[in-house]
Design a protein that fits this description.
By secondary structure, the chain is an alpha+beta fold. It has one domain: Outer Surface Protein A, domain 3, CATH 3.90.930.60. It contains three helices and five strands; from the N terminus they run ββββαααβ. The strands form two sheets. A three-stranded antiparallel beta sheet has the order 2-3-4. The protein has a two-stranded antiparallel sheet with strand order 1-5. The relative contact order is 0.23.
Length: 91
């Protein structure tokens, strides 16, 4: 499985935070710095394992707790429509 950012999502830097605008339903989200890092890692890598590795390289802490926090954030972003899961990426 991979994640990607749908075409109807636009993001914009606002200081240390990231504004996400979902054009389909006109929702707006403001991501804090940690959620921003995860969103940007999804845009860059897509693969959840690579996202976890990228975040672990920038954030220090218990690796199991960090992995769980990343996974929880990915699930929440997917539930809100900021990212979508591609079950069959065709790799």
């Amino acid at each position: 499985m991979r994640y990607c950012v749908p075409e109807n999502i636009v993001d914009r830097d606002i200081g240390e935070e990231l504004l996400i605008h979902h054009f389909e339903n006109d929702e707006v989200f403001i991501l804090n710095n940690h959620a921003r890092m995860i969103f940007q890692a999804v845009k860059r890598y897509g693969d959840p394992e690579q996202v976890r590795v990228a975040i672990a390289s920038e954030v220090f802490g218990d690796s199991l707790e960090l992995d769980q926090a990343v996974d929880d954030t990915l699930q929440r972003m997917a539930a809100e429509g900021m990212i979508v899961a591609d079950e069959d990426p065709g790799d």
